[in-house]
Amino acid sequence: MSLPKGKKHSSKVSATTIPSDIAIPPLEDLKVQDAVEEPLITPETQRVLLLHAARQPYELIRDYPVPQVQGDHEVLVRTEAIGLNPIDWKAPDFNFAIPSLPYISGRELSGLVVQSPKATSRLQLKDRVLVISTDYRDLRKAAYQEYVVAFDYNTVRLAAHLSFEEGSTLGVAFVAAALALGVCMGVDFSSILDGPDLYTLIRQIPSESLAPDIRDECLASIASHERATSGDWLAVWGGSSTSANLTIQLAKLAGLKTLTIVDKAKHGLRLTDHHAIRTDLLVDSHDPQRAVDIIRGNLKGKLRFGIDTRGRESASSLLQALAPGNLSSPSAAQEGSPPPSPPSTPHDSTRLGAHLIGLTGLPKGSAPEGTLFHAVPIKLFHEVPEVGEALCAWLERLLEKGLVVPPEIIDVEQGLESVNRGLDRMRKGEISGGKLVVKV
C-alpha cells in the first residue's frame, strides 16, 4: 500500500478490539486489503523548484511553505507526476511569462486529493486526479512543488486504467485544443458524450465576466454561419506536438477531416500507425512551399481552418494554404467565384471565410481579406468556472471511455530535482513526438 509522504506505520492495536491471544503481524506484512488505512496528513513545508532569475536553472528548496487553500472551490493535491512543457524552459531562457521572481513554474501534474473542496464538487478526498494549471500568475497552482492548490473545475479525475504518469501528459494540450476548436472554430461537441457547445455556452455568460483582452475572440471572432461542422477540413502544422495530438483526436471525434504537416522522416510512420491521431492527409514539412502546393492541389479550395503549433514562420506558410471565400458547396468552390465580401459587409450565407489559429504565434501584420486570425483564449478555462467545469467533466468521460488517449511518454525522470535535467533534454531537441514526465 502506498503511504502518505512523511507518515510511518503504526503497529499498535487496541486490546479491546482484538483478543490478546491472537498474534498480530506487523502492518507491513499484511495484504493490501487487510491493512488499516491511515489518514492523509499534510506537512507544513515541502520541496519546490524556484526560479530566481532569467536564464538560470531552477533551484531546489526543501522547506518552502505548503500552499494554503482559500476558496470554497479549491482543492489541495499531493503531486505524484509532472508533465514537462516547452514553456517551462522557453520562459526563463527568453524572459517572458514570468510575472514575478522568485517564480514557480509547471503547468500540468497528476496526484492525490488530500484536501477536498468545501463546496459541492465532483472531487472527493483521495481521488486520483490530473491538474491543469493555466493560471500562471498564482504560484500556489504551479506544478513544480510537492503540494498544489487547484480549482475543482480545473481538475480531472483519472480513469482507473490510467497511471499518474499518463495523467500528467495531456491537460494543457487538451484545454488548448478544445478552446481552439470550440471557441475559435465554433465546433459543437455536444454529440460526443454530452460534450460542451462552447460557442453557445460563452454567449450565455455575461460579457463583463470575460476578460477584456479575450472578449472579442470569445464573442466576435467567428460568425454562426461559419462554424466548423462535420466534414470540414482542418490543417494542423506541427503535427508531432502534444497540442497537435489532442487537437487531431478531438477534431476526428467531431467528424472533421484532418491533414497534418509534419517532418515525415521523424514522425511519418508513428502518425500513420497511431489510430487516435491518424489523419486523412499527411504532408511533409521539409519544404514548406511544396507542402502548401500539395495542400492546395489536393483540397482545391476546401480548406478553411488551420491550426499552427510551431510559430510565426510556419503559421505564415499555413496561411498560404487556406482558401478564404470558398463556397459551402465543394463543387461550387472548385468552379470559381467572385471575390468574397469583406467581413464588415452583410454576409452571403453560402460564402465562408478562412480561419488561422496560432498556438505559439501568428504571421506579421493584419490578416488578408476573407481570413481571420485567432489566438486561443486560454484564460477562459480558469477565469470562467462554467467553461472549466464543462471541459474537465467532459475529459473525465472521454478518458473513461477511451475516446481520448494520452500522448506517448518518451521517458520518465525520477525526482523533483531531475526537472532541470529534463528541461535540458528538451532544449537539445531530444524529446519529440511525445512527453517527458517527472515522477515526484
Shape annotation: globular
- Helical content band: 25-40%
**Individual helix count:** 13
Number of strands: 15
**Helix-strand makeup class:** alpha/beta
H/E topology pattern = EEEHEEEEHHHHEHEHEHEHHEEHHEHE
Q: Which CATH architecture of the largest domain?
A: 3-Layer(aba) Sandwich
User: CATH class of the largest domain, please?
Assistant: Alpha Beta
Q: CA-to-CA gap between the ends? A: 17 Å
Unreliable segments of 5+ consecutive residues: 1-37, 326-349
What does the average pLDDT come to? 87
Could you say how many structural domains there are in total? 2
Keywords: Oxidoreductase
InterPro entries: ADH-like_N, GroES-like_sf, Lipid_raft_assoc_Zn_ADH, NAD(P)-bd_dom_sf, Trans-enoyl_RdTase-like
Domain Alcohol dehydrogenase-like N-terminal: 71-133
GO molecular function: oxidoreductase activity, acting on NAD(P)H
Describe the fold and architecture.
The longest helix is centred in the last third of the chain and has 17 residues, at 385-401. Strands 3, 4, 5, 6, 7, 14 and 15 form a seven-stranded mixed beta sheet that branches. It contains 13 helices and 15 strands. Helix 3 crosses helix 6 (242-253) and helix 8 (288-299) runs parallel beside helix 9. With 440 residues, it is α/β, with parallel strands linked by helices. It has helices at 87-94, 164-167, 171-184, 198-202, 212-220, 242-253, 264-273, 288-299, 312-321, 330-335, 380-383, 385-401, 419-427, and strands at residues 45-50, 59-65, 74-83, 108-115, 128-132, 147-151, 155-157, 233-237, 257-262, 281-284, 303-308, 354-358, 371-375, 409-414, 435-439. Helix content is 27%, strand content 20%. It has two domains: 45-169 and 406-439, Medium-chain alcohol dehydrogenases, catalytic domain (Quinone Oxidoreductase, Chain A, domain 1), CATH 3.90.180; 174-380, NAD(P)-binding Rossmann-like Domain (Rossmann fold, 3-Layer(aba) Sandwich).
